[in-house]
Amino acid sequence: MAPDDEFPTDSSRAQREVEESLFAEDAVRDASGLRDPPVIQKDSMWAYLRAAVNGKIEKYFVGLDSSQPWLCYWIIHALDLLSSSEEPVLDETTCQETIAFLKSCSNDSGGYGGGPGQVSHAATTFAALSALCVIGTDEALESIDRKSLYRFLLRMKQPDGSFSVTDDGEMDIRATYCALAAASHTNMLTPEITRGCKDFISSLQSFDGGIGGEPGNESHGGYSYCGVASLCILCDSNLDEMGKIIDLEGLRQWASMRQMAFEGGFQGRTNKLVDSCYSFWVGAIFAMLREQPGQSSLMDPSRLNRYLVNYCQDRRGGMRDKPGTRSDYYHTCYALSGLSIAQQGMCEEGEDVPSALRLKLIDPVYNLHTGRRERVYRYFHGRPFLPE
Fold it and tell me: For the chain: N or C, fewer Cβ within 10 A?
């Protein structure tokens, strides 16, 4: 159990409650004989996600009205990771309906809003494009208006090299990553888009090695992911080039400290609780900063795998943040993405991943199944973009 030196605080009490909840989960599994071997309950997971595709979304998700493209991506991507097929996970009619819906979220001025009639936003633009990439058909990719998207991205470009999330919105690494990933997907990484980005990212690294959202901000797992993924896009994943912009070893050390000693999952910031979504946001950092063969990893993929499989599956379907919470589409998407990364790490260390546990591999820079990302790359690189 986490020590508190006999001076308990709200944080130490919350940490102890999490640790006790894991003991309770183990006791339930021991009594039911389900503790070993751990498996992903794919049938219940699939049913949970398919119900959402069929419109059976619980009413509390009304709070995500401005995140509708995200819901599309989270659900479709999670289904794709669970599927053993390379074919689209949605039937033809549902693919067409989803493409039409996402098209209705786009604006003539460029980009995609959080729903039909909503203003364009860098994050929901990235989400809409990601959902279309997962669908991956010619019809899905042809629905992207690159000219208006390019105008939107240039409008979001800031003098310091960053991007804003929307007109007169905040400028941070999240918006910058979303803009760069959108431009990379669609083969529009022009000098106008990339200008000053490296300098902006360099300004975000904190004294402890992590990356914050803006200069001077606290290090954060999600923002660190966005910074590293952005550099992978800008430097074509060349670690030597990336190392000239930020301290990669310091970042690795910071990220390694986010893996919880007791739980095995990741926290997003210092002195915070474990959360399954950071299995991707922080776990993907190790995948992007992949060490040379033979070097020891600073992440323990087996312990991450154990946390996700043993403690984050909701018996009602889907994945949850931690025991005591309930599943949702966001955590299902990113917990499964983190599990894919853990499996890849286990395989590289010579561990066998049982077939009942196995998920598709992802490209950590974009959080897409590698086959989907390769398809998108071939499609748009076969159609060069000429700015107006």
Answer: C
